[in-house]
Amino acid sequence: MNSSKQRFGQVSGMVFAALVYLFLYLPIVVVIVFSFNASRMNIEFTGFTLAWYGIMFQNASLMSAFQNTVIVAVASTAFSTLIGTIAAIGMYRYTFKGKGTVDSLLYIPIVIPEIVMGISLLAFFSLLHITTGLLTLIIAHVTFSMPFVLITVRSRMAGYDQAVEEAAMDLGATRLRTLRRVTLPIIAPGIMAGAMLALTLSLDDVIVSFFTCGINSVTLPIKIFSLVRTGVTPDVNALATVIVLATILVMILWHLFEKRSAKQEQAV
Amino acid sequence: MRNIGSKLFLPALLMVGPVILWLAIFVVLPLIYVFVISFLAKGLYGGIVATFTMTNYARFIDSFYLKIFLVSGWIALLTTLLCLLLGYPFAYIISRSPKRMKNTMVMLIMLPFWTNSLIRTYGWITMLRTDGVFNKLLMGAGLINHPLQLLYNSGAVILGMVYTLFPFMVLPLYSSLEKLDRSLLEAASDLGARPYRSFWRVTLQLTTPGIFAGSIQVFIPTLGYFFISDLMGGGKIMMLGNLIENQFLAARDWPFGAALSIILILLTIILMKIYRKVGFSMENLTS
Questions:
Q1: Which candidate, A252, A259, B120, B253, has a CA 20 to 30 Å from the CA of A194?
Q2: Three-state SS string across B45-111, please?
Q3: What is the ipTM metric for this complex?
Q4: Per-residue pLDDT tens digits for A224-260
Q5: Which CATH code for domain A60-267?
Q6: Residue B91 and residue A177: Cα distance in Å, rounded?
Q7: Residues in chain B closer than 8 A to A147 (CB atoms)
C-alpha cells in the first residue's frame, strides 16, 4: 500500500517535470519548425523547404546584425575574462584595505535592474558626447559580464593550494613565469567557466544592448525586436535555428569538457 | 602559509585596480549622473536644463503613473508567485532524482536559457496569435468556433515573464534544496513527524534563503523587462520598464525617466537590505 503510494508520487513527479520541460522547450521547437516552412508567413505550415537557410545570407541587415552580435560577444568576453581573471587572482592572493568595498562594488552591476544599467550608460555616453555604436556596446557588455567572471573564477579558486606557487618560486621561477606555468594551468577550468558565462550573458542580452547600440550597429536580438512588430520572415527563424543548435552543441561539448577535467582532478 | 606577500600593495593594486577603475567609471559615475539629472528640469526640445527641481518626483502622485506602478507591482507579484509555485516542486523533484540524472536535468533547464530570450518570446507569439498554432489546433479539434484572443493582455505578459525568468527561480531553489542536510529529515521522521509535517517544518524552513533569492531575482527584473510587456502585451500593458524606456527614447524626458529609475534602484536596495538582514549570503544571487 505504502509502496504503491510512493510509486504514484514518483510517477506524478515525473509527469510534472516533463510538463515543465515541455513548457520550456515548446517556443524553441516552434521557431525551429517554422524555419522549414515553405510559406513566407509564419502562420500556417504549408510545406517543407530548406530555402530559408540560403536566403538568410542575402538578408544584408540580418547578416550585419549577426556579425555585430558575434563581434561584441567575442570582444567583451575576451576583455572581461582577461581583467576579471587577473583581478580574481589578485583578490584571492592579497588582503588589502578596502577589499570589502571592492566586493560591494562588484555586486552593483549584478543586482541593479538591467534597464537602469542601460539608461545610465546611455545618459553617461551622451554626457561625454560619445556616439553609440559597436564600441559602446562592447563597453556595456564588459561592464555587466566582468563581475560574473571575477566571482566565478574566484569561487573556483577556493581550495587552490598556493604552496605550489611557493615551490615554483623556490625553484627559481619568476613571478610571471609562475603565473604562466603554474597558476594559470591549474585555474584554467574556472577561467573557462567564467568566459562561458560572459559569452552567454553577452549573446542573451536584450535590454542593455537596446540602449547602448547605435542605429547602424544593432545586435541580432535588437533586430528581431524591431522585426517582431512589423513581421518576421522565416529566414530569421533559420538563423535563430542555426544559433540555437550551435549553442546546444557548444554547451554539450563544454559539459563533456567539465566532466573530463573533474575526473582528472579526482585522479590527481 | 596562505596569502604569500599579503603586504605587497603594488601588485594587488595592479591586478585589482583595472576592475575597480572600470566599475567606477562605467557603473558608479553613470548612476550618480542619473541621480543628478533626476533633480533637473527637462529642456524644451528634450534636453536637460541645469535647474534644481522636485517636479520629476512630484509627478509620481499623478493617478496615471500611480496606476502604472500598481499594475507593474501586481504583474511582478503574480509572476513571482507563479514561478515559485511551478519552480519549487520542480526543483524538489530534481533534487530527489538519482545523482546521474540530476546534472542532465539541471542542464536541460539551462539550455533554453542560453538561447536568446527574444527569440523565445517570438516563439510564444507564433503560437498564441489569433491565427497562431494554438488557435488553429483548437479550431481544428472543434473545441472553439472563433479564435481566442490569447495575446495582448496581462495574462500573456505574465506568461512571457514567468517563462523568461523561471530559471532565476529554479536555480537558487535547487541549490538550497541540495544543501539541505538529509539527516535532519530522517531525524524528523524518527521522532514521529509525518512527511508533510517534516516538509513544512524542516524542508521549507531551511530553504527560505533560496525562496527569497529566487523571488528577488524574479520580482525586480519583471518590473524592468519592457520588451516582454511590449511584445506579449502588444503595447497595451504599460509597466515601469516601458515607462522608463519611453522617457529615454520616445518622450525624451530624461529627468523624469531618471527619477523613475531611482525609484527602481531604491526598491532594489530595500529588498537587498532585507535579504542581507535576514542573514542570507549574496553568493546565492550569482548561482
A1: B120
A2: CCCEEEEECCHHHHHHHCHHHHHHHHHHHHHHHHHHHHHHHHHHHHHHHHHCCCHHHHHHHHHHHHH
A3: 0.89
A4: 999 988 878 899 999 999 988 888 888 788 878 877 7
A5: 1.10.3720.10
A6: 45
A7: 23
